[in-house]
């Protein structure tokens, strides 16, 4: 059953948005009395019945809770350089499916794509929609947040209390040596652009109190591949919770 997400805590009765109503009633052809799964802003999932439909908004009645919010050992934050073409779209979708909590687009020195201020908002809205679709597809109970575009300096300043894991092609320290250090707590997976990190960017990242540059092995990975590899490793270490 495809899950519907609402952006507020559930109540005994509530209305679906116009978009979700259209999808449920017109696209999926649900009828009055049908049961839908609804995940609220806390990450809990409920069985809800379609109680009424006026042609515009579907009125829902909550029947019972069927899943509690997922247990978390800390947030997984994927901070990735903005990638060209549709690579960032694909990364957001797959990070959502794997269980990342937040995706942050980062404007870095060697980024091929340089987003103007006017274009940044539209891109973030697009990426948030892709994250929502990924969450619906994989059956998770919450939707990852796609943050505003940041510079690397802003990223370090805002998330400096978290652990930073930075896959870096010039590093020889294997990722597995730091796995125990990032099993709990918030962790930022920071991925460079197609052209790689500049030396000054690596120095900046190391100003974070808990920053680990690591190797993902002898093969040269694309940025989006490196990001999802790192997410998968940390999710495995945390038991895929």
TrEMBL record:
Ranges in a coiled coil: none
Domain of life per record: Bacteria
SUPFAM superfamilies: alpha/beta knot, PUA domain-like
Catalytic activity: uridine(1498) in 16S rRNA + S-adenosyl-L-methionine = N(3)-methyluridine(1498) in 16S rRNA + S-adenosyl-L-homocysteine + H(+)
Described purpose of this protein according to its UniProt entry: Specifically methylates the N3 position of the uracil ring of uridine 1498 (m3U1498) in 16S rRNA. Acts on the fully assembled 30S ribosomal subunit.
Predominant place of localization: cytoplasm
UniProt GO cellular component terms: cytoplasm
Any one of the GO BP annotations: rRNA base methylation
Official protein name in the record: Ribosomal RNA small subunit methyltransferase E
Ranges where the Ribosomal RNA small subunit methyltransferase E methyltransferase domain occurs: 75-235
Protein family (similarity comment): Belongs to the RNA methyltransferase RsmE family.
EC category name: transferase
Presence of the UniProt keyword Methyltransferase in the record: yes
InterPro entries the record matches: Alpha/beta_knot_MTases, PUA-like_sf, RsmE, RsmE_MTase_dom, tRNA_m1G_MTases_N
EC number of this enzyme: 2.1.1.193
GO MF entries: rRNA (uridine-N3-)-methyltransferase activity
Keywords attached to this entry: Cytoplasm, Methyltransferase, rRNA processing, S-adenosyl-L-methionine, Transferase
Localization in the cell: Cytoplasm
Tagged with keyword S-adenosyl-L-methionine: yes
Pfam families: Methyltrans_RNA
